[in-house]
Structures are given as structure tokens and as C-alpha cells.
Amino acid sequence: MDIRIKRAYDDPAANDGTRVLVDRIWPRGVAKADLALDDWNKDVAPSTELRKWYAHDVAKFDEFAARYGKELDSVAGRAALSSLKATVTGQRLTLVTATKDVEHSQAAVLAQLLGA
Fold it and tell me: For the packed helices 61-72 and 106-115, what is the interaxial angle rounded to 10 degrees?
């Protein structure tokens, strides 16, 4: 499966494949119709506590990725990942996130886990 990451503020493209928002909170200032989503999987997003602890501090990214991986390895996390995989139709999955730095985001961690 080809997994891509795209910001919620970027225009959808015809070749995005299945588009899933992987944030717990809806992106500010974006209308639902503008995102052209196939799904919004809040359950696969990091917990509020972990998200607030991380605060997109790149210095904490490795620790964030490890903690997030542990969350996804729980019963609820595995169910959320299964649900995410089940929504994919075709060969491409685009993980949509509102974060500015997609390389240091939960979407990057998810892409790595799903691609492994």
C-alpha cells in the first residue's frame, strides 16, 4: 500500500486515494466538504494527554513516537488501526492532518507503522 501524508489545508487531489483525517480535533477554519474525506478516525489519534505533552516539540519526537506506539499497541489502539486499514479502498492511503510539520507528527508515526 502506498501511504502519503497531506495537510488538511492542502487541496485534495484525484490521486490521493482513500483520505482519512487522523487528528482528534477538527482542523480550524476548514469546512467538512473541503476536505473530501473518506473517514475521520479520531480513535487512531494520540490521546489528548500525549498530544499536549508533545506540543509539537521536535526534540521530543522520538519519545512521542515511542509513547504513541504504546498507545496504538493497546486493545483500543489495535482496533483503531484495524478500522483505519478497513477503510482503505485501492492502493493509496492519504493520512490527513492539520499539523504544520508532518514529518514530526502522529501521521508520520502512523505511516511508518502501517508501512512496516
Answer: 60
pTM: 0.93
Residue 1 has pLDDT above 90, yes or no: no
Query: What CA–CA distance (Å, rounded) separates 33 from 112?
Result: 28
CB 22 within 8 A of CB 112: no
pLDDT in tens, 3-13: 999 999 999 99
Q: How many CB atoms lie within 10 A of CB 25?
A: 11
What does DSSP say about strands 92-97 and 2-7: parallel, antiparallel, or unpaired?
parallel
Ramachandran angles phi, psi of 102, nearest 5°: -70, -25
CB 105 within 8 A of CB 5: yes
